[in-house]
């Protein structure tokens, strides 16, 4: 008897729109996965919720580590070969962006990823404050999303419950940072774990 | 006029003996530096002191992040090709080890590094609790250090003041974690920044 060939399971990619390391990973993860025959499911996430569980705080607020991190983010962008400009407001609340992404993703994952990358680039390259609803709707509209429809969705309660459930599911899986990736149950936290992730995919674990 | 050729400045490497990522870097840093014509000055450091400044806590105590980190440490050891066994007592106070290292380093840096690696391997491979003074003296003795002389040094006040000054100097330079490396004033935190450090050395910055 031969086993039927099963396609490899998708990778799960958790990210917060206010996370620069999440932006770096978002720019890399689909191509990395494709090199090993994998697709990627994107999961918008809210770091603020995890901070209540872990007792951690946003990087810029931590003495010594905050100053280092702002420098490390700029250097890491150059290391990854990605454009980056430190946003003038950082960090920001990302509920609107996460809900918009989730609503789009439930309908058209490819369009959701295009919107997600556009939102990340607006915030981390062009210094657009994507916590502003009007700015966010402009970005979605430029990606072919119906602005009025998305505006109505974001004003409703359904998408709020949908995001809360998604974040709860992430917490239950152990997500505490951004980016956070699962490959066949193996967890990788941080853009700096992409080399380990790639080796894991290439070798089927190590 | 030609400028006289100056030898490249040594790299500064800060580490805590209770830090597994510090152990990984300690095993790699001298060879990495040598590939680019650099030597390394080792600086023993006390993370407990930085926790008071940053408000951070030892990894194993942090909800979600602690469990992930224990797994990441074991996987990172395999990634780096280094032997590792999670110590049964972790973390531990490392003042004795740091003071012994510092005293040796002031006399013979090569012997200090051999002792430092032996102490790291005892703790992270053979599960020897190096916060125990007798165990620590055994390790030093096996490296050719006079056991009675080192024992007397560690009982004195001079080496305590010497370590306190070294840690204060590190804090003043911005050290908040282990490993922490400076190359010509550029700071790199974490074993996962060794690739960025190597590129920095190869290209003279990026």
What can be said about this structure in brief?
By secondary structure, the first copy, chain A, is an alpha+beta fold. Chain A is built from 9 helices and 4 strands; from the N terminus they run βαβαααααααββα.
How would you characterize this protein structure?
The structure is a homodimer of 206-residue chains. Chain A is α+β, with helices and mostly antiparallel strands and 206 residues long. The first copy, chain A, has 9 helices and 4 strands, in the order E-H-E-H-H-H-H-H-H-H-E-E-H. A 4-stranded mixed beta sheet of chain A has the order 2-1-3-4, with helices on both faces. The longest helix of chain A has 16 residues, at 65-80.
Give the arrangement of secondary structure elements.
The structure is a homodimer of 206-residue chains.
Chain A: E1 11-15, H1 20-34, E2 40-44, H2 47-54, H3 65-80, H4 95-107, H5 109-124, H6 133-142, H7 147-155, H8 158-173, E3 180-183, E4 186-189, H9 194-203
Parallel strand pairs in A: 1-2
Antiparallel strand pairs in A: 1-3, 3-4
Helix pairs in contact in A: 1-5, 4-5, 4-8
């Amino acid at each position: 008897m031969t086993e039927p060939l099963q396609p490899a399971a998708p990778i799960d990619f958790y990210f917060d729109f206010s996370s620069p390391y999440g932006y770096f990973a978002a720019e890399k993860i689909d191509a990395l996965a494709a090199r090993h025959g994998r697709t990627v499911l994107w999961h918008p996430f809210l770091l603020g919720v995890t901070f209540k569980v872990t007792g951690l705080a946003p990087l810029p607020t931590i003495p010594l580590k905050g100053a280092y991190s702002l420098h490390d983010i700029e250097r890491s962008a150059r290391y990854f070969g990605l454009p980056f400009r430190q946003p003038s407001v950082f960090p920001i609340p990302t509920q609107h962006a996460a809900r918009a992404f989730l609503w789009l993703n439930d309908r058209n994952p490819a369009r959701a990823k295009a919107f997600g990358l556009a939102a990340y680039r607006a915030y981390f390259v062009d210094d657009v404050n994507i916590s502003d609803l009007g700015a966010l709707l402009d970005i979605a509209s430029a990606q072919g999303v119906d602005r009025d429809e998305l505006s109505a969705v974001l004003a409703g309660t359904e998408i709020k419950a949908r995001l809360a459930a998604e974040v709860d599911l992430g917490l239950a899986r152990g997500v505490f940072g951004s980016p956070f990736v699962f490959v066949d149950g193996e967890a990788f936290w941080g853009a700096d774990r992409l080399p380990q992730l790639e080796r894991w995919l290439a070798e089927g674990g190590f």
